[in-house]
Design a protein that fits this description.
This protein is mainly alpha-helical. It is built from 8 helices and no strands.
Length: 215
């Protein structure tokens, strides 16, 4: 009978590196797209608000699994064959952008209205108001929900296995198919996920304390 050994654990750790890489791609890409979406949602322009709202509602109303299928199989049928990492990265980026955009929109709107009124009295234009007054305060509010969503991104990378991307959860399935020890294998997978996600939660609390201490 094949037993779980060090080689299997090394294989899981190697797959965890791909999980981390995909998570970083998703978060960085989602942040780059999410901030403009958040600013569009609080824009004075009805057109910009409508476009941002439509995108967010479309993505939030569509299962991530379907977005993955469309990115990999849908584009493949159209002649744009993407490697699994690229397809998964794009899907998670679009997915993260929608949620981060809405999270950050709420954080921007949570800044007291009097702050913007005070910036108006100082003669600051719209850009200066956001850059120097509103966004620095919104960042403090945004730290806990943003890091909480980062943890969700890490766990959602497991869905990338449906398009052939071997991340941590898929690696666990592969090892289990050869060892037939599901309890040991998936316990190890759960421990690795915890080792990735728990430090993020600790970092969030540390950053939150520092942000409030600097107020």
């Amino acid at each position: 009978m094949i037993q779980l050994n060090a080689n299997h654990l090394l294989y899981l750790l190697e797959a965890a590196r791909w999980t981390l890489l995909l998570s970083v791609i998703a978060f960085v890409g989602g942040a780059i797209l999410g901030l403009p979406l958040a600013l569009m949602r609080v824009s004075a322009s009805r057109l910009l608000r409508g476009l941002a709202s439509g995108y967010i509602q479309l993505i939030q109303g569509t299962p991530l699994l379907i977005v993955l299928f469309l990115s990999y199989f849908g584009l493949g049928i159209m002649g744009y064959k993407l490697v699994p990492l690229v397809a998964a990265g794009l899907s998670l980026t679009f997915y993260a952008a929608a949620f981060l955009g809405e999270i950050w929109r709420g954080c921007i709107e949570a800044v007291p209205r009097t702050q913007q009124e005070a910036a108006d009295c100082l003669g600051l234009n719209r850009f200066q108001q956001y850059a120097w007054v509103i966004l620095p305060q919104a960042v403090r509010i945004a730290i806990p929900p943003t890091v909480g969503f980062m943890v969700q991104i890490v766990k959602n990378t497991s869905l990338a296995s449906v398009i052939g991307f071997v991340e941590l959860a898929r690696a666990g399935q592969i090892v289990n198919n050869s060892t037939f020890e599901p309890f040991a294998i998936f316990t190890a997978v759960a421990i690795i996920y915890f080792a990735i996600c728990y430090p993020l939660s600790l970092a969030a609390r540390t950053l939150e304390r520092r942000a409030h201490a600097g107020r």
